[in-house]
UniProtKB/TrEMBL annotation:
GO terms for molecular function: hydrolase activity. This is Hydrolase RBBP9. Gene3D superfamilies: alpha/beta hydrolase. Signal peptide: none annotated. Transmembrane segments: none annotated.
Length: 148
C-alpha cells in the first residue's frame, strides 16, 4: 500500500512520473463481458454478484449488459459493442469470462485498457463450430503478461 493524499492505495494504482512525483492512475469502471449463451447476465452465474460488490467502491462503477449476438458472439459485433456502447477505454478494467475473455483479448489488441481480468480464457476456437463462427482466435504472439 502507498499513501497518497491521505489515502492508502494499492501500489499498482500509483505511477511515478519523470520528476518522481506520485500521481494516482486509477480506473473509473469495470466492464464484465460475459460468456456466450448465458441468458440474462444479471442473474447468470457470478456476474450479478460481482457487479453488486464492485458498485460499492466509491467513485467507481461496474457495467454488466446482455451482449448483442449472445449465442454466436461474433467478434465484429461484440468488439463494436464494447467500444461504442460499453465505452471501454484506458480507465476501464475489462473482466472477460469464456467468450468474453476472448473478446477482451481481441479488444486489447487494438485498444488501450487499464487492465483485463480473464476468467476461463482460451485463445482458439476449441474445435467448436460456434466458436469458429465467432472469430475467437487471438493473435499467436500475445504481448500481455499472463498470470495463472
Amino acid at each position: 500500500m502507498v499513501q497518497f493524499s491521505g489515502r492508502s492505495l494499492p501500489a499498482c494504482l500509483v505511477a511515478m512520473s519523470e520528476d518522481s512525483a506520485a500521481a494516482v492512475v486509477s480506473p473509473v469502471k469495470a466492464v464484465i463481458v460475459p460468456g456466450n449463451g448465458g441468458g440474462n447476465v444479471e442473474s447468470c452465474i457470478w456476474y450479478g454478484w460481482t457487479k453488486k460488490r464492485l458498485d460499492k467502491i466509491p467513485n467507481f462503477k461496474c457495467l454488466l449488459r446482455n451482449m448483442p449476438d449472445p449465442f454466436t458472439a461474433r467478434e465484429s459485433i461484440w468488439l463494436s459493442f464494447m467500444e461504442s456502447d460499453l465505452q471501454c477505454d484506458n480507465k476501464t478494467i475489462v473482466i472477460g469470462h469464456s467468450s468474453g475473455a476472448a473478446a477482451a483479448m481481441r479488444f486489447a489488441e487494438t485498444h488501450q485498457l487499464f487492465a483485463i481480468i480473464l476468467v476461463a480464457a482460451y485463445t482458439s476456437d476449441l474445435g467448436d463450430e460456434n466458436e469458429r463462427e465467432s472469430g475467437a482466435k487471438v493473435k499467436e504472439i500475445c504481448p500481455f503478461e499472463v498470470s495463472t
